[in-house]
Each structure stands twice: as C-alpha cells, then as structure tokens.
Amino acid sequence: MYHHSLRQDVFIKEEHHYLNVPKVGTFTVYDSLDCTFECLGNPSCLSFNLAAYKGADGKLRCELLSSEKYSNPEEYKRNESFHHFSIKTPCMSSPCQNGGTCVANYKYHSFDCRCKEGFYGEFCEKDFILYRLNVTQLVTLLVDSKLFSVLCHFGNFGCGDGGWTPVMKMDGNKIRHLCTSTLWSNKETFNLDGGKTGFDLQETKLPSYWNISFSKICLGMKINDNQPKFIVINKQANSFYSLITDGQYRATSLGRDTWKLLIGSDASLQLSCNKEGFNVVSDNPGKSKARIGIISNDQDHCVSCNSRIGFGTGGKPDESNSCGNEASKESDKGRKHIKTMGYILVQ
Fold first, then answer.
1. What are the distances in angstroms from CA 247 to CA 182, 235, 244?
2. Long-range contacts formed by 189-195: CB under 8 A, 24+ apart
3. What average pLDDT values come out for the chain (347 residues) when binned by 10 residues?
4. pTM of this prediction?
5. Where is this region: Disordered (predicted)?
6. Kindly report the CA angle at 236 between 231 and 242, in degrees rounded to 5?
C-alpha cells in the first residue's frame, strides 16, 4: 500500500463534515496530530474523522477510514460533531466531469474517472448524445453498458430535420425478418456492422431496438437501386421492442395513400379494411400480416386480407415476402409482388 513507501502524506481538514464508510480503527486521541499518526501507521487508512469536541476524559474520538470522500461522494455529509481529514490527492481538483467519480491511485499519484452511463473519455468529457450532431456520421452509442457504432443520419433525407438512430434494416427477399421471426420478439442483435453502412443492402438489428426511447419513427423502403422513399410516424414509446414484442395491435392513422408512398407509383392495395399500425394481422391469421404496415381486403371486413405494404410481413398471397408490397385480386393497381429493402430509424 501507499503508506509503506511514502510517509509524507498531507491531510486536508474540512470542518464539520463526516464520511460514513467502513472504519479500519477507532481511537481516542488528544489532538489531530495524534490521529494523523494513527492513520499513517495503518496501511489501510486513507482518511479519518475526528470529533469536533472533546469528551469528558478530555480526548477526541478518532475514526480511521478505509476510503476517501472522492470515491464516496454520496456518503460525505455535513456533520456538526466531526471534522474530516483527507489525504491530498489528484482528485482534489474534481477532474471528472458530468457526474463521474474520481478514483485516486495513491501509489502513482494519478487517478481514474468512473463515468456515469452515457459518458466516456479520460475525464468523462465525451458523451453519446446523438442529437448534438449536425452532420451524418459514424458515432458510438452506449447501450446496456456496451459500446456499438452506428451511422447516425442527420438532416432531412426524407423524414424531417434532426438526428435519426438506426434500429433495423431488412431485405424482403429473405425470410429472416418475416412477421413470425423471433428477431421481433427478442433482445438479440444481428450483423452489427450493417448499422454502419447507411441505406444499402445489408440487413441488421441493433441494440437500439430495445433500449432507445423515441417520439418519431422513420420508415423507408428501397426498390432495387432506386433512391429509398420515406414516411414518418409520430409515436412515443420506451423502445421499439415495447411496441412489438407483446403482439398487441396498436393502430396508426396515416391512411393508405401515405403507406403507398413507400413504394411509389406502382403501389397497390385492395380498397377495404385498411387496417394499419403495429402487429397488424388479418382475422384469418393465414392471410396478410405485418409487424409494421397496412393490410387491405376486397371485401368490407378484415378476415381475408390479400394485400399489404409493410415491414416484417407474412401470410398470403406470398409468405416469403418479409418487406414490401403484396397485392392480389381487386387491388387498385393490380397484382403486385414487390420485395424491398426496409429501413427503420427513430428520433
């Protein structure tokens, strides 16, 4: 320990304060110098409390402590009955920012900062707040105490101004993101590198799916090499996971024309039912369904929907299309079988 090799500790007195941490010794002494020597003689002592007033025997209570106030700021309180003495440390200048805790290394006269969640850096001076960006760039986010990098989009690329955090990217030609896939109901990631590459053909599911709250959702679809088309849902939630995983239907009111914007002029839907939102399912579960989207029917009910536009889709008329537009008989633009790349971002 530090005291074996370096005996010139300088103690700083702070009147009427008390540090409530485990004690490594308790003595009665005549003055602060006696208590200082007791601390120096104990290799586990890093600070001490000394009574402000003498007892009936004319002595002061001296409490040797195993830690110091910089590592335990929540246990350091004003107390009229004691004075606190702490070793002079690099933490005296409060180098750790944003609520970080300074941990002194007495042997090497150095320190480390233990940062609160959401901050990092030598002095906890850096944060993971996306919305301070003003340009699309690769940033590091902290989720579940783990770091991951994503390409965060800033500016109006089709969903309005501000910063947008990627959540999922899916390929309608693949069954990985079908409506029945466990990716919609678990907290497992898929291909984190896909979160770094923007609106391309890589699929991904990021930790932001279950651990980022939001008030807006940006949905995008891209057909082949065309530019993606976007729509926005104003929806507040603790996470995307909380919207989807319980399977409960949650309605939106965008209207069929807005959903068709994702596909463009080729978009096709039947004219009736038009059930939209999250966890959208026909009354006949073998028919069209979508984790996010709209389903339609050629009859005045939602039992046998045979058309849809959405993300995480499934059911007839084509069970294999996990993202895009499926339309069967009596649809306004005829039969369609359009598989797209799908992009989900939140703000």
1. 12, 17, 6
2. 192/148, 192/149, 194/169, 195/148, 195/149, 195/150, 195/151, 195/166, 195/169
3. 47 94 96 93 92 96 92 91 89 85 78 78 69 66 75 88 92 91 94 94 95 92 96 94 94 97 97 97 94 96 96 94 94 96 96
4. 0.65
5. 315-335
6. 100
